[in-house]
Amino acid sequence: MVAFGKKLKERQIQEWQGYYINYKLMKKKVKQYAQQIEGGTQRRHVLKDFSRMLDTQIEKIVLFLLEQQGLLASRIAKLGEEHDALQQQPNISQIYELREAYRAVGRDLLKLLFFVEINAIGLRKILKKFDKRFGYRFTDYYVKTRANHPYSQLQQVFKHVGVGAVVGAISRNLGDLQDRQGSYLSIYDQPALPLQDPVIDSIKAAVDRLTHSTNFLHFLAQHALIMQEELPTPVEEHVDDQKYHFMSLLLNLANTFLYMVNTYIVVPTADNYSMSLGAAATVCGVVIGAMAVAQVFSSVYFSAWSNKSYYRPLIFSSIVLFVGNTMYALAYDLDSIVVLLLGRLFCGLGSARAVNRRYISDCVPLKIRMQASAGFVSASALGMACGPALAGLLQINFKIYKITFNEDTLPGWVMAVAWLVYLIWLMISFKEPVRETQESNIQQESNAEPVENDALEKGLAQPLLLSSEDKQEDEDGDQDNDVSEEAPEESRGPATSIGSAYRLLTPSVKVQLLIYFMLKYAMEILLSESSVVTTYYFNWSTSTVAIFLFCLGLTVLPVNIVVGSYISNMFEDRQILLASEIMVLIGILLSFNLIIPYSVPQYVCSGLIMFVSAEVLEGVNLALLSRVMSSRLSRGTYNGGLLSTEAGTIARVIADSTITLVGYLGESKLLNITLLPSLLICISSIIATFYTYNSLY
User: Which residues pair with 534 in a beta bridge?
Assistant: First the structure.
């Protein structure tokens, strides 16, 4: 992996080189501090010297930022004089030239925002390196003391009031120069109708990325674990625009929604279906889990297939899912549990979630990628809620010729029809994105200025203060040894196998994957055995089970809104992570049937606590995972999204298998015995979390 210092140098604007953070110098100072402490120098002297050096670097950046803002303001003032002159004697050609002059100022402002972005990333990484080397939470101390001071230099970067003023001046003047057909209204009179100009849109997007704090949209987008590289390549945004097709994105989100409906629509009726075919009710675990078993393998080949095409994997997925659901529905009339299981296996073989993730990561422009990622998570949550609800509505029984349509078979028939309709829509509307061989021709035809602007518009400006697990520097290129900048080409590319991907995982990443495994296992136990448990203890009907599962599914988005918009702004991610694990543990403990007779309030409340806590835990865990995972896992077949999917899918397979195996001991023992592994794994994950993050700080 190319060292961050080298990447930083490559991204710098040449004429401003002297004003960037001196990352190489500061990295060497960190190594010197380590030697000084070993030699007996007191730690407080090191902290004082490092703080002074950071203050100097930030002051250099801020003063240059203010100087450039002043130059932009002067240019706008001169253009304002020309604008006033044109008001007296309008001239179409001069108006056009003036409009382009304002846009040129906007493009220079984009360069300035890109300058701030690069420095923010460099500061964040050097702070993280210092914390990692000395085991001291210096980042928290430094940012809190500097950001809250009235003369803070950091506030100049974070608040960038001058940038807002420049954007406002450019927007207002460009708005006035537009042909308003006799209207005397300005942008201030119509705030609901913002100025539609590509330069202004790019500036606003850059400012939003630069200043974004943890909010619902950002939180939800990370929930999808769609990996991105930390520093963008200059042409990526241009390529994204060539690839992007809204209807194709919509089709990917529809695929995500339908697949989640397909997964959970059988949960309320799987036990009855199994018994109608002569099997035990607890065989529902195998029926539900068969889909997850096949998904373990389908995720890999779909991820590899997406390297070459998106259209063909989606076509294949739709056909396989149509066949699988048809087999699932026909198993009743064939009186065959084998056909039933094969149908669910086929459905799992059609899991194209790896393609859906990859399409968003590769083909959606950066400026809307967060919204698309949030849409992916929302579609999954909505499908999870709609599946059981739809099953609850399909309480009818009739025959056409020799084919039976009842509460057991209708989920299969409904989904078969849905996938057939989706297949037709896909064949009509999907547009295969431009592949890399075609992209090179597009890039050669583009001139230098758009490429530069695309690089500036791209600007993945992450906030300066992120938790210090953020993107661990286990990558080859960001170790303390500068020789890594000469790393061979094969060491810089993506992982080429599951084994090589696993070797890129740091201890903190392994803990995050363990947590993900735990929460998926606990949730699968709760959902998959709900029908059997509630029938045994409370004699619930299929409709009642469906309503319960539907209500659980409906909590996903509201919980993410609360966590993303409020809780994550009050507490650190690590604190929310540990608290959520403890709440999952409490939910599991309350679910046991030990002393008092098992009641509906106990089951519902404990299930709700467990499910909601697991949802909070999943969002925070994936947000942290997206930060600490190596950037080499942001691309290729064996990427971070695939690893998390495999961890979650294997957890579901084991959970569903556990339900079926324990079922042979009797339904009376099912609840407590299946909860025991959840309890042990949850305790293990809490211990691992506590140990890992305390060892880092």
Answer: none
